[in-house]
Design a protein that fits this description.
The complex is a heterotrimer of chains A (329), B (440) and C (293).
Chain A lengths: L3 H24 L2 H26 L8 H18 L3 H23 L4 H21 L1 H4 L5 E2 L6 E4 L2 E4 L3 H24 L1 H11 L1 H6 L4 H27 L1 E2 L7 H13 L6 H23 L7 H15 L3 H9 L6
Antiparallel strand pairs in A: 1-4, 2-3
Helix pairs in contact in A: 1-7, 2-7, 2-10, 2-11, 2-12, 3-4, 3-10, 4-10, 7-8, 7-10, 8-10, 11-12, 11-14
Chain B lengths: L1 H7 L5 H20 L20 E7 L6 H20 L8 E7 L4 H15 L3 E3 L4 H14 L3 E2 L16 E2 L6 H16 L2 E7 L2 H15 L4 E8 L19 E4 L6 H12 L5 E5 L20 E4 L11 H10 L17 H21 L7 H9 L3 E2 L10 E4 L4 E4 L2 E6 L2 E7 L19
Parallel strand pairs in B: 1-2, 1-3, 3-4, 4-5, 6-7, 6-8, 8-9, 9-10
Antiparallel strand pairs in B: 10-14, 11-12, 12-13, 14-15
Helix pairs in contact in B: 3-10, 4-5, 6-7, 10-11
Chain C lengths: L2 H33 L6 H18 L4 H28 L6 H22 L14 E3 L4 E3 H23 L1 H11 L1 H6 L4 H23 L11 H14 L4 H21 L2 H18 L11
Antiparallel strand pairs in C: 1-2
Classes of the chains: A mainly alpha (329), B alpha/beta (440), C mainly alpha (293).
């Protein structure tokens, strides 16, 4: 494996992407500026998903529970206990780590189709728990975190996370940190073991690797990143509700990753951005050309999934990597 | 507050973001982003001229679980806007409705309100029904300081847990509705009440507000049966209804409601307790559907009556004609297409409240949004008439919520006939907070 | 109500659930057993059955039984044809790769929901039962039609069992399930068997939906619960096992009714779902299945 010849290019590319995203803060019109802040947070969710699905080859249909762990871990502590932003974020992260550890220990006993269904079942349990504890979560209606609570105070300075620029930069900071972590992980020996497990678990086991421990570590890392995205979502956008824990939010990261390219570090971002604008843009077009058809994300997501799996099973960046840039991480 | 926020930002301030934009010019922005996404957001809109239309962003449930309601909300909105424009618009300017589908999803709802504020640059956002979408979208409205007029009947606005930019001036909230129902139930239906409600937020309002309201009238809730959100069959819960129940109070919602009523019918037959329900269960559903015969003789809450009543005012008749519903509350084009009459009047009335508030504020454009909020808060009363066909209302500017009369209708000969109208006072309660103390 | 009648009612309700569930889950199990495909769009075939039943029944006037019988014949045929097309256009081109087909059937799920929303609309619409007879028990009344659903389901299950176990078609299917490559070598047209099985699986879901829709109503989002429940049944019963599927449907259906007697309903759902997940974790071959292949 000639890994080193791509290292320079890879680092330049990732630094370049972050630099472009910083620059976008100053040039994007208000609407797209706001959209990108949200997309960056959701891209973090997709990156967490990609770590498990793309690199370790474990297709989960229940990642909404990890996103929700962060969402509720941060949201409930802020709403009921008046915790500050940093401690609430940590609460969300810890909730995600604990949940992914428990789910990992159980679900990783299964593989393939059974793993998909088990994760889906656990996510359904998590979703119903939100309703069961409706007294605190307000179930489907959810809770609003007031604007004045969504700020970080360092002594005299107050960082208002609802200010568009601050919010964008906070989302970008989280995104950049996770991107760098992903890059380090996939280039590390741990990342290579995960890929080896994906390609042939039996052989990896015979080579002396503890595949269960490695998969569990991937699961926890993935759960933690998704929970960080969930916690950031409630802190930056101020809302927690059970819809964000529903099956649909387990399918979405899969879609984003497939679109952008599984097992590519930048695929999740590309997929999330494209899918957002596909739904947003096509709704205007469809309204104009197919009035009365009520075409919504349902149809668009459905067609996109089938086309992807038929014609671009490796996603955009995966195809780019195969054809043009083998060094792409 | 606004100044504080901008100066405290450690990154480049909003002002500098703007100036950078100008400095680089539209060319640069176009070069960076244009080839990727040629969205209308990249076109800089000219400042609204005095003759330019007033833009109202309508957050519509075109798809998702609220789609049946959403369709009728849209019809009513179009009818009201036509009436307003035919009469000269708002402050002499025509009104334009910009519709965005939120998929009845709070996440998308928040994005849609953001799109209204920053891309469509609407003057106000309006029209949301489902509570979770309202609650999910409210923070965005507050952050962009975009007045947001909802037609949801949820207690969320009046709870003062949202923010100063959210209003509900066209339909009474559910807490008030429940409280107004209690005296009639206790006096006419029975003293021992069994509640059946969905085990999520909409049901919790009924679970929490009905018992104290009934207690005040000398009646009691003898059992509360919560049905989980994923349930599609209900018979197995019916044995939990105590045998000494006088009246079953049911507020099931969603597509499984027909099953609920049918199964209740099979369970009890003709020998049943009194039934009292909220028509929310059967909005957009024909009351004469097979299996619903069982409802004959039962009572429903209605915001506005679905069926034309003998004593309908001229204003009500004109409103029904404008929206296009026949005497049975179905579309004039398709008698099978039943409307959501009990709620959709709220769209009509809310649009007239927006008109009134804008005219009071001398509203000229988005820079006057704060004035618009204060003008709305200053409203106190809406007289019955063409603008408020459902009836007279009072408005509490501190909690941003209106209070109106409620109808109790009886199912007779396959129609709903209004048998009692509550007074506004029946539904008043102590305010839980005060939005006007929040900064604008 | 006294405990005895309460339990009787819960059992009756459980049997109805089980009857419909057995048919729906059998379709899912068949598709998995023969094709090794997890069809996430299975619930949408159920939904299509109900929606088409409404369309067919409302096209026929006169006695409700006429429209219902027509729906019972026509709706499954249309659904089967659609499944056939989906198999040819999508699944076959993916070579029935298990993970790719899951993603593809998720796509199919959304497309079918979208189609139903566009052409049928967002409303919940009722279908009239072929007859309305209320069985009067000393403690409560019960729908005679629901009892008929149980009977019809048993007949259909027996018919399916007969086809699978006693006819040439069944033998060909079992041969394909056992070893598709050898079957191919012996001249069995495996592609056609796969397409046929996928269509029959969808038709079973559609029949179940037509049977149950007179007790509920057709709605474009109604496919989600049958899908989850079918998954549960197929897992507990052991993927691809007919007898296991029926036994598991009974177990799940009846216990769903009875658990709700003792626990708060939402908690009951949580416990049931968790229990199934645990079965899959600790006994992946299902409670009744033999070792996974």
């Amino acid at each position: 494996m000639k890994n080193d010849d791509g290292a320079g290019k890879a680092i330049t590319l990732h630094a370049g992407v972050i630099a472009v995203l910083v620059a976008l803060n100053f040039v994007l019109p208000d609407y797209h500026h706001g959209v990108m802040a949200r997309v960056l947070v959701l891209a973090v969710y997709a990156m967490g998903y990609n770590l498990l699905f793309g690199y370790a080859g474990l297709l989960s249909l229940g990642h909404a529970m990890f996103f929700a762990a962060g969402l509720y871990g941060a949201g409930l502590t802020m709403y009921h206990l008046n915790w500050g932003v940093p401690s609430a974020f940590i609460a969300g992260l810890v909730a995600g780590v604990l949940l992914s550890l428990v789910i990992g220990v159980l679900a990783l006993r299964t593989k393939g189709v059974a793993f998909m269904i088990v994760t889906m079942m656990f996510a359904q349990v998590a979703y119903l728990l939100v309703y069961y504890f409706g007294t605190w979560t307000r179930g489907d209606e959810g809770l609003v975190i007031q604007q004045q609570a969504r700020a970080i105070e360092f002594g005299a300075t107050r960082l208002d996370l609802t200010d568009p620029t601050t919010r964008y930069m906070a989302a970008l900071l989280l995104f950049s940190v996770v991107l760098v972590i992903t890059l380090i992980v996939v280039r590390s020996s741990f990342g290579r073991v995960l890929v080896a497990i994906r390609e042939n678990e039996e052989r990896t086991k015979m080579l002396g690797y503890d595949t269960f421990a490695n998969k569990l570590a991937a699961m926890v890392a993935s759960g933690a990143i998704c929970a960080a995205a969930g916690a950031a979502y409630v802190i930056l956008f101020g809302y927690v509700g059970s819809t964000l824990a529903s099956v649909q939010y387990s399918i979405l990261p899969l879609l984003w990753v497939l679109l952008g390219g599984a097992a590519t570090t930048l695929g999740p971002l590309v997929g999330t951005v494209l899918m957002y604008y596909l739904i947003d843009g096509s709704s205007d077009l469809l309204k104009a050309y197919l009035p009365g058809w009520n075409v919504s994300y349902l149809g668009i997501v459905g067609v996109a999934l089938i086309l992807l799996v038929l014609f671009f099973p490796k996603g955009l960046l995966g195809t780019v990597r195969d054809r043009f840039a083998r060094w792409l991480p | 507050m606004t100044d504080n926020r901008d100066s405290s930002s450690i990154f480049r301030k909003k002002i500098s973001r703007r100036s950078t934009l100008k400095g680089l010019g539209a060319t640069a922005a176009g070069l960076v982003a244009g080839p990727i996404v040629a969205g209308p957001g990249f076109v800089r809109y000219a400042q609204a001229q005095s003759s330019a239309p007033i833009k109202i962003g309508f957050q519509a449930h075109r798809t998702g679980i609220g789609a049946a309601y959403g369709r009728w909300y849209e019809k009513t909105t179009n009818a009201a806007i036509k009436a307003i424009n035919d009469a000269g618009g708002i402050t002499g300017r025509p009104v334009e409705i910009i519709v965005e589908d939120d998929g009845t999803d709070p996440g998308r709802g928040a994005e849609v309100v953001g799109k209204f504020a920053t891309q469509h640059k609407v003057d106000v956002a309006y029209g949301t029904l489902f509570s979770h979408v309202v609650i999910g979208s409210a923070p965005v409205a507050g952050e962009f300081k975009l007045p947001y007029f909802v037609v949801s009947e949820g207690h969320h606005v009046a709870s003062t847990k949202l923010n100063r930019y959210v209003f509900q001036p066209g339909i009474t909230d559910v807490k008030s509705q429940i409280q107004a129902m209690a005296p009639w139930i206790a006096a006419n239906a029975g003293k021992k009440v069994c509640q059946i409600f969905p085990d999520f937020a909409f049901g919790y309002d009924h679970r929490d507000y009905l018992p104290p309201a009934l207690k005040a009238q000398g009646a009691d809730v003898v059992a509360q049966i919560a049905i989980p959100p994923t349930e599609s069959s209900f018979t197995k819960y019916f044995p939990q209804i105590p045998s000494d129940t006088d009246v079953i109070y049911h507020v099931m919602v969603g597509p499984a409601v027909l099953t609920f009523v049918k199964e209740l019918g099979e369970f009890y037959g003709s020998n049943r307790p009194q039934l009292f329900g909220f028509i929310d269960s059967l909005e957009a559903v024909d009351i004469n559907s097979p299996g619903l015969e069982f409802l004959d003789g039962s009572h429903f809450w209605e915001g506005a009556p679905r069926y034309a009543q003998a004593d309908d005012s001229d204003a009500m008749k004109a409103y029904r004609a404008a929206v296009g519903i026949d005497d049975n509350g179905a579309s004039v084009d398709d008698p099978k297409d039943v409307s959501t009459a009990a709620h959709m009047f709220g769209c009509w009335e809310t649009l007239y409240v927006i008109k009134k508030a804008m005219e009071d504020a001398g509203y000229k454009g988005p820079e006057d949004r704060a004035k618009l909020v204060e003008a709305t808060e200053a409203l106190t009363e809406f007289a019955e008439g063409p603008e408020h066909p459902q009836g007279k209302k009072t408005f509490n500017g501190k909690i941003h919520q209106c209070f109106g009369i409620q109808n109790i209708s009886k199912v007779e000969d396959g129609k709903l006939k209004v048998v009692h109208k509550t007074s506004i006072e029946d539904g008043l309660y102590e305010p839980e907070g005060d939005y006007t103390t929040q900064a604008l | 109500m006294a405990f005895g009648p309460h339990l009787l009612l819960a059992t009756l309700e459980g049997l109805v659930t089980a009857a419909v569930l057995a048919l729906t889950a059998l379709g899912l199990s068949l598709v998995f057993g023969v094709m090794r495909v997890v069809n996430v769009a299975h619930g949408e075939f159920f939904m299509l059955g109900a929606v088409l039943a409404w369309a067919v029944a409302s096209a026929f006037g006169g006695h409700p039984a006429v429209g219902f019988v027509a729906a019972l014949v026509v709706a499954p045929l249309i659904v089967g044809a659609l499944a056939l097309v989906a198999d040819l256009l999508v699944l076959k081109r993916l070579n029935y790769n298990p993970e790719a087909t899951i993603v593809a059937t998720i796509g199919l799920l959304y497309i079918i929901q979208q189609a139903a929303l566009s052409f049928y609309g967002p409303e919940a619409r009722p279908v009239e039962a072929p007859f309305s007879y209320r069985v009067l028990l000393p403690w409560f009344g019960y729908s005679g039609y629901k009892l008929a659903v149980i009977g019809a389901s048993i007949l259909l299950l027996l018919a399916t069992w007969f086809v699978l176990a006693r006819t040439r078609i069944g033998m060909v299917m079992r041969a394909t399930q056992y070893d598709s490559e050898t079957a191919q070598a012996f001249g069995i047209p495996v592609d056609r068997v796969y397409a046929g099985v996928f269509a029959v699986g969808a038709m079973l879901a559609a029949v179940a939906a037509v049977l149950i829709v007179p007790t509920s109503q057709a709605h474009y989002l109604m496919g989600r619960d049958p899908l989850l429940l079918s998954f549960i049944v197929v897992i507990i019963g052991g993927l691809g096992s007919l007898r296991g599927t029926v036994v598991a449907a009974l177990l799940i259906g009846v216990s769903d009714g009875i658990i709700s007697v003792f626990f708060s309903p939402t908690l009951a759902k949580i416990i049931a779902t968790l229990a199934v997940a645990m079965v899959l974790v600790f006994r992946p071959q299902g409670l009744f299945g033999t070792a996974a292949r």
